[in-house]
Write a structure and sequence with these properties.
173 residues, mainly alpha, two-stranded antiparallel sheet, two-stranded parallel ribbon, 60% helix
């Protein structure tokens, strides 16, 4: 339906015809210009770094446009994950590489991180991550290291719970 090729995302016919679909697909694919293209994966088991970030980008856009508040998007994703399950997004295996948990629980990982460190540190984390790894490949430990350096907190347990634990953690408050 769409592809985030660097500097030129491509969109299928449905993306162009359906305004509701377009409202989600365009920001998702554009978010990949930073998270997926400018900063790319070193290994595919870390696909959540691409798709979780792009999904979170959708939620931010919907919130910005006044369509759906960020918390509502996160709660909706949480409810879907509660019902559907799926492999933990930190290493979903070859068959789960594009499972919805990589997208939704990956986005929820970022939502949980923002809830934990606060909006100011979260924005600083994103800026630092992009600046440090622009034009490079990354792994989840690279991202975790940035989050801990910027926030001054030990966040490994948060990432372990959201990315690797088979059980879905409680919704972040």
């Amino acid at each position: 339906v769409a592809l985030e090729t660097q500097t030129m995302p491509t969109y299928g016919e449905l993306s162009l015809r359906d305004p509701g679909f377009r409202q989600v697909v365009f920001p998702h694919e554009l978010a990949h210009q930073w998270f997926g293209d400018a900063v790319s994966l070193e290994r595919y088991q870390d696909m959540w770094l691409n798709e979780g970030f792009a999904t979170y980008g959708e939620w931010l856009w919907l919130d910005h446009e006044g369509a759906i508040p960020l918390e509502t998007s996160a709660r909706n994703a949480y409810n879907v994950m509660s019902a559907a399950g799926g492999p933990p997004p930190g290493d979903p295996g070859p068959d789960g590489l594009f499972n919805m948990s990589v997208y939704l629980r990956g986005g929820l990982t970022l939502y949980a991180l923002r809830s934990e460190v606060g909006e100011r540190d979260f924005e600083k984390i994103l800026r630092t991550y992009l600046k440090r790894f622009n034009g490079k490949t990354v792994t989840t430990p690279d991202f975790v290291k940035v989050t801990e350096q910027v926030s001054g907190e030990d966040l490994q347990a948060l990432f372990d719970t959201w990315l690797y634990d088979p059980a879905l953690p409680p919704f972040p408050e």
